[in-house]
Structures are given as structure tokens and as C-alpha cells.
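Justification of computing resources. Each target in the renewal requires a structure prediction run like the one illustrated here; the chain below, 501 residues long, is used simply to show the kind of job we budget for.
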Amino acid sequence: MDYSLFAILGIAGTSFSLALSGALMPGPLLTITIAEAARRGAWAGPLLITGHAFLELLLVVVIIMGLGPYLKAPPIIGTISLLGGIILLGMGGDMVRKASTLSLCQETVSDSQRHFNHPVILGIVGSLANPYWILWWVTIGFGYMATARRFGVPGLVAFFLGHIAADYGWYILIALGISRGKTIISDKGYRIMIRCCGIFLILIGANKMEVEEECIPCILKMSLNGLRSLNLEPYKLREIYHEFVKSIMTQNDIWDITSAELVEKILIKLIDKTDVADPFITIKEKANSQLLSIYDQLKHHVLDCDDAVLEAVKLSIFGNTIDVMLSGNPENHLKKVLTASTKDVPLHIESYQKLSSQLKNSNSLLILADNAGEAVMDKLLIETLKEKYHIKIYYAVRNNPALNDITYDEAVDIGFPDIAQVITNGIDGPLPGTVLSRCSQDFLHIFNGVDMVIVKGGGNFESLIGEPNLPLNTFFLLMCKCEVHSRFFNNPVGQAILWVN
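Resulting C-alpha cells:
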């Protein structure tokens, strides 16, 4: 069985589970099914769902024909996926919360509903009468169709068949239960199923930006850079590097975790094999040193701009590529490279206006740090913000060394305690990202209590984008460094990104 067939079966299975979760919730169609099964017998169930299936097939065709071209746009996919995740989490929580009060003994339909005599017609009417049905299709259904569409017609067919199979299965079971005196399903069994599907919705709703094929070479390159910075013997370097390649390709959950989580697994092996707690320390020291050497020049440049905050934001974003800029750019050329970059590549004006508006109305700000070197640009941003706004600023760094990301000691060396309150995320492990469930309570208290959050870098973005508890006033600042990000943001590689949650 090849990979694509596994994927098609996976689409059908997930579609079945999602549809079952929606079908279990009481609504007009369930009410009609109970009433009609009591009056007509078990055949009412499949006939009602045939009407429902016809309407859903029509809706799928309309979506494909009318909105098909837009499904390819990464921002549309990303936005729909995020909105669908939020809806799933809300529906799942609501199902778990209300499960103990639900019953199969719903009230019967009204006389006006019986006017539409045929069960197929009733199935259509019952679907249209349910606001949950419309909401499901314009958010969750639409988003999952976008995923299924990657596999062409087979993917869409698997999606629809899996979806409608759940509806047929559940409502036939309901009709049989009602027609036979409810000997098959009890209220207790129904409530258990509701809770299980609610938990399923919560789990599937909390999706993250997971590893894609293009991530693997990038992760291996970062690992190799870390090894080379340690000046190992060639045979030792190759031995460890071979171990990295082997471990990645034999990782069972490689496609179910974020890039940051996969990098963490590699870093744990790197630290174990070399007995070096911070393999990237030399790289970080060089980056910080070179940026600090031109700090005063960059600050004068920012203050001379018409919009100092805008220029400081741009430099903070472009600092995300400092590891590339340092290669072949001595200190006397680095300022020219940075300032030229801010002119050549534009920033989305509407997103920047939202950032400016939020800064004006905020008393507290948390910045989640990323790379060393880049952190020097963050210092410039913080100083620029504090000159314009009266705002309390927290600067959160890695709790443990992770790649070339900044830690507490390095933040102190740069001088952050003079301009911001430096905290760590509290994560135990070399994770170059932020997973809220692993953060300390001290960090979460600040994270949930500030008026706004600025998140720096790709690792933080990829690990936070699926978090259900992400504050609304969260702004992501990063460079579009790879094809994976390019598809998501629908921007070319090398574009500065200011993305608003």
C-alpha cells in the first residue's frame, strides 16, 4: 500500500470522525429522525439522510466550482484552518460540557414540519434549519476540503464518502433504536459517545504547523552547522551526522510534530554525543558581538527615519536572517546590508497599522525572543518603543540552550535588564520554539496577563500557531525563509512578515 493510498484512507477516516461528531449533536434533523422513525419505522433514517446527503453533495459541488481557485492560496487555507480549529475547540468543549444533560428523547416535530411529507424532503429541510450545519461547512468542512483537494478527485471522494457514511451510520442506528423501542442505544451510551466525540474535536482542533518534507534538509543543515562549530575530528563528525540522518528517517511521529520539536530531538542527541551543553555558543557569541559593534550606528539610523518604530520593527524582523548576513559581511558592511534590506523589501502596511494601534492602547507587552544577533535588533526595537510609548515590556528567552536562540545569560550580556524585564519560558529541554503546555506557570501568568504579545522567528511561529489559548492581540514578526512559509503566507522567500493573529 503506497503513501497516497494511506493518505486517502486517512482522509476518509478523519472525515468520518468529524462528521460523526457533528451528527451526534441534537438538532432539527435528529428531532425529525426520532419522530419519523417512531411513525414510519427504521427506513425513515436512511431516507432522511439521503435528502441530507443530496444537499451536502450540492454544497460540495458549489464550493468546488465557485471557490476552488481560492483553495490554493496559503493565506486562505491557513485562515480557514485556524478558524476551523477554534470552532472545533468550541464545539468540542460545548459537547463535553452538555453531555450529561442530553437525551435521545427529543420532542417531536411540529405540524408545519409534517407538511413536507416525504422523508427525503424532510432531510433537506432539517439540514437547512440547523445553523450548526451551515457553520460547520463554511469553517471546518471548507478547511478540510482544502486538505483533501491536495489529493485530487480521490481525496474529495474519500472526504465526502467518509463524511456521509458517518451520517448514514448514526441516523440508521437512531432510527433502528427508536423503531425497536430504543433497545440498541440508551441515553447513557449516547452521552458517552457525545463526550468521546467532544474530546476528539478538542484534540483535532488544536492543530499545529507540522513538519513537511522541505523541513528535513533545513534541519540537517542546522545540525551540521552545530557539529562543525565544535571542531570535531572528521570521522567523529560524520559518525554523529549519520546518526542524525538515521534517527530522523526512522522517527515514528516525524510528520505529527512541529519542526521545533523535531529539532529538539536532534539537539538532545547532539548534546548526548558531544557532552557539550550549548553546541552553538560560538555562533551566538559571534552574532551578538558583530551586531553590538554597529549598534550605535543603527540606532542613529533609526532615529533619523520619519517613522522610527517602523524602521526598528523592520530591523528586528531582518535580524531573523542575521546568520546568513554574517557570512562574508564584516562589521563595516553589515550596517549597509541591514539598512538596505529595510528599503528593498516592504512590510504589510495594514498589519503595521494594527500593531501601531495596539501599542498605543497597551500598558504591557511581552516579546518572545528568537535568535542571538537578532536579539540585538530586539533591544533596538524595545528602546525605540519605550521612547514613544509608556509601556511595560517583558522579554522572554529560552530556558535551555536551543540552536542559536538567545538564553538568559546572553540577554543579560547584551543589556536587556536595563530596558525590559527578562524572563525565561521555563521549558525543560532544547526546544527552539514555544509550546504553552510545557511553559512555566510564571511565564504563562505574564503571557496571559499582558495587553499584547510580539512573537519573533519561525520556530516560535510554527509551534504557537495551533495553540487554542493564543491571545487575540498576538503579532508574529519573522522572515519568510523557506518554501513552507512561502506557501503559508503566500509571499516569496525573503519577504518580511508581520502576521496578526
